[in-house]
Amino acid sequence: MTWKGIHPVVQLSRTAYEKGVTVAKVAMQAVESRLARNPLLPKWDILIRPACTA
């Protein structure tokens, strides 16, 4: 699969997570800072920018 000539990196996780566990507010803000929503379809169209690995 490609999108605009780029191949996505996908990993399957079979880990079972416990119910009721939440993500810390600071950790969630780090994830949300990488999201860019389309103003025309904000609920369905979200661009996730890659995390900096440097």
- How widely separated are the two ends? 27 Å
In one word, what is the shape?
extended
Order of helices and strands: HEE
Average per-residue pLDDT, rounded, comes to 87
Overall SS class: little secondary structure
Helix count? Answer: 1
Proportion of residues in extended strands: 5-15%
Sheet with the most strands: spatial strand order: 1-2
Percent of residues in helices: 10-25%
Question: What is the strand tally?
Answer: 2
Q: How many strands, what sense, and barrel or not for the largest sheet?
A: 2 strands, antiparallel
The quaternary organization reads as: single chain
Radius of gyration, CA atoms, in whole angstroms: 14 Å
Q: Return residue spans where pLDDT drops below 50 for at least 5 consecutive residues.
A: none
Protein model, in words:
The protein has 54 residues and is mostly loops. The chain contains one helix and two strands, in the order H-E-E. The protein has a two-stranded antiparallel ribbon. Strand 1 and strand 2 form a beta hairpin. The longest helix is centred in the middle third of the chain and has 8 residues, at 25-32. It is extended, with a radius of gyration of 14 Å.
How are the secondary structure elements laid out?
Elements: H1 25-32, E1 35-37, E2 46-48
Key attributes of the depicted protein:
single chain, 54 residues, little secondary structure, two-stranded antiparallel sheet
Short structural description:
The protein has 54 residues and is largely without helices or strands. Helices cover 15% and strands 11% of the residues.
